[in-house]
Amino acid sequence: MQRLFKRTVFTTLGLFLATVAVAQDRPKVVTVNYPLQYFAERLLGDAGDVEFPVPDDVDPSFWRPSIADISMIQSADLILLNGASFATWVDRVTLPRSRLVNTSAAIEDQFIVTESITHSHGDGGEHSHEGVASYLWLDPTLAIAQAEAIADAITARELASADDVAIRLEELRADLEAMDQTAQSAFSDTRDVALIATHPRYQYLARRYGLSITSLEWDAGAAPTPEQLAELSSIAERTGAQVLIWEAEPPATAIEALRGLGMESVIFPTLAHKPSAGTYLDTYQKAVSDLSQASLGANN
């Protein structure tokens, strides 16, 4: 009886240790924004885990990782960077170069140079938009290039079956191409419509679909000050814009104030963070539909 008990204990312990070993051997990928997380998850499937460590209430562009965060990131098998000056913390942290992949390295010739504008966002401190526009994934064709870079990195490091990754990449590419075609169709009659955005995030969206967007410097989802409303009114009068694009849901009072100026509000999430519902694909497509409808309404 005692021998049977010992055998059972050792068998159970062995199974436990084997499970722990498998968990420890499971590949881990870390990303600097949600779109890269989405692409990596689609490409890895169930072969590994993908983590995007930035808290929901922090702008991923200006996140400052803690010591624990840095340790977790350094332990990853693959660290996916956006490039284009996104996530400035990566330049201040020591990371294993062999595991770093700049997903936009192959498309740097398509970067959009931006003006130098210095301002602050809450606790993020003062910063400047000088350099290049960062939100590449708002152009699905650039998102495809980033997905291809991720697929190459996963395959090169043997984090998943090369055949499986190739199949998943074709599926993801097809989804992104379909999304691009939908947007091309939706915006086909809005190229001459003047739009205003609360923040300079939409440069690649505007270039891809021929949109005319003037950018403000408002905090995401925050109620505008009287001075900001006056600036908006001046720009709207000068450009003829009747639609304001918000990154996040603004207070109801802000929407009412804009209606008083004869402007309609449209929420177009920049998707640096995971949306509260849905995925990168369906959130983007809904935003495209909403903006297209509002633009067409303003054009009539």
UniProtKB/TrEMBL annotation:
Domain of life (superkingdom): Bacteria
Chain coiled-coil ranges: 162-189
Signal peptide region: 1-23
Molecular functions per Gene Ontology: metal ion binding
GO biological process, one term: zinc ion transport
One Pfam family in the UniProt entry: ZnuA
Record-linked InterPro entries: Bact_metal-bind_prot9, ZnuA-like
Keywords from the UniProt entry: Coiled coil, Ion transport, Signal, Transport, Zinc, Zinc transport
Bilayer-spanning residue ranges: none
Family: Belongs to the bacterial solute-binding protein 9 family.
Protein name (Swiss-Prot/TrEMBL): High-affinity zinc uptake system protein ZnuA
Source taxonomy: Bacteria, Pseudomonadati, Pseudomonadota, Alphaproteobacteria, Rhodobacterales
